[in-house]
Amino acid sequence: MKTFKIIGVRPLKGCNKHVIKNLKSDTFYTFYNNYEFKDEKVIKSEQQVPDNLYASNISLHAIVGMNGSGKSTIVELIIRIINNLSFYILGEQSGTYAAEPLVPVRRLNAELYYEKDNVIYKITISNDSFSWTDERGNIMGKNSEDLQSLFYTIVINYSHYAYNSLEYQSEIMGRYKKKFWIEALFHKNDGYRTPIVLNPFRERGNIDINVETELAEQRSIAFFSYFKLYHSIRFHPDYDIKSFAIKLDKDGVSQKIKHAMKDYYPYLAEIKDMSWEDMEKSIKEAWVKRFSFLNKNNEYSEYCYQYLVYKTMSILVKYSFFQVYFKDNSKKENPFDEVVTMLIKDESHITLKIHQILYYLDDPYYHEGRYYWSDLEPFLKKRSDSSVQIDKIMYLLPPPIFKTSFYLSYRTDKGQLGVVNITDLSSGERQLVYSMSSILYHVHNIYTIRNAENRKPYNCVQIILEEIEQYYHPEYQRILISTLIDYLNKLNIDKNFRIDILLVTHSPFVLSDIPMENILFLEQGKSVTSEVKEKLKESFGANMYDLLRFSFFLKESAIGKVSYDIINRLMNRIMNDTSSDVFGFYEQTQINHGNLDKYIKLVGDTFLKNILDKKLGNNVSTENN
């Protein structure tokens, strides 16, 4: 069976203190407890967890600990190792014009271990050098193709305090004084060449929530449609797709053409000496030559042609592997002919909006107005050729010349049908939809790269979800892993495409879906997995009380601090405890002998309440005697 797992990390002596914080140098932090570090090697013992617990191509593990225990430090160590490895192999530019240049982390000394196809690999970063080997002694990392034989990492963290580039100044190398290494990893335009992306996008630590919402809505429309059409399920447990409302975005198209003239044309004119007018005309002619239907005119055709010009230039500038066809065609009358041919062949996320325009021009189904699912379903089924792929659904959605509003239906408490704009959902409801669509979007894009020319595809993905339960009601936390696994399984991806999921969590509901063997427990930078296992034999399917008490290092109890103190002090008062601490508590809460029974009635635990009632009754009886 083909395997893929991130096994663990090991910070080494001499590593920047800002990087390792409270982690211990030369300590191996393992994510799967059937691996151990011995004699400078990772030794694998028999696995107790079934291989297909979640799916044959999906493995899942977690890091748990109190705030400040080192959870995020371990995740950031993984990110830094991948960043430096990418820099040493790809160089600063990572092969693209528009992407932020890669910058190495200063004084990084650490190791990352992973298993792929039953072979264990080690990546070592040592200051300004690296080594990448497998257990058989083979050496990797000689070129960029090797990097794509690694794995792709998707990191999702919606915390406001995470990944603020201004907090990484101590890690800047001398000649990169004004650049922060982490900023290059929020990339949007590198074609997934650097094998890691951080979500959501941040600029100097700030998330542009309006941009993120717009992107998330576009992805959500596609996944609501896909799961409804091909799997007859909802993309959200409480909401179903209802309708679209679309409106021509004249200003948006106009701004894109201005952007192309200002930023893309000068770059391309350096390669081919052409005026703007000639370049615009050549791009249009190259597209019309390939598709006869482009000669058909409808009320929105001109906006579509303008968008094709913008997007063709945008892709040429941002993705160097398409520039080859632009540079090496000096003998052709139209320098864009071969470029257009390759753009048509490409079926990755890069050309998605081009395909949307082409599908629309071939069959201009959409006009300004409202479209209900009952109308859309037969259209989507007919045009998607029964190929159960998210790509086809995306191609058939309203093209980018339109602004699209998305409406969902739901059942009210009285069983009546309600309708709501997706932007009017609660923060928790939107977070569930948006985070799931972001994960699926990136996994889908990485998988479809295999269809692109001149690209060696990734066949493994690591998904790191940091405290993804933020905003979630306990019921959403309870179904989180089940929902994610179910959606990934329905993406229609090859089972040879493997996924390893790491969750950093504070939720006992999430933890109850993960076996003890797959959990790293941390306390003050130290692994305490063996100590926790002595108290909590198994986490998978364990009850909430045991998980809270033993897995999350609660110091006193699994109930709130106020109720815990009051119950303890009530017991002391009933037993005639006269300590000064107890008397101080009575002054603060104004508890006296006459109102003890009111406090006892507040206690929700029946067992504790009965004990307090019994003790109070005994004491009253003794006093009366």
From TrEMBL:
InterPro entries: ATPase_AAA_core (IPR003959), P-loop_NTPase (IPR027417). SUPFAM superfamilies: P-loop containing nucleoside triphosphate hydrolases. Residues 372-512 form the ATPase AAA-type core domain. It comes from the Bacteria. This is ATPase AAA-type core domain-containing protein.
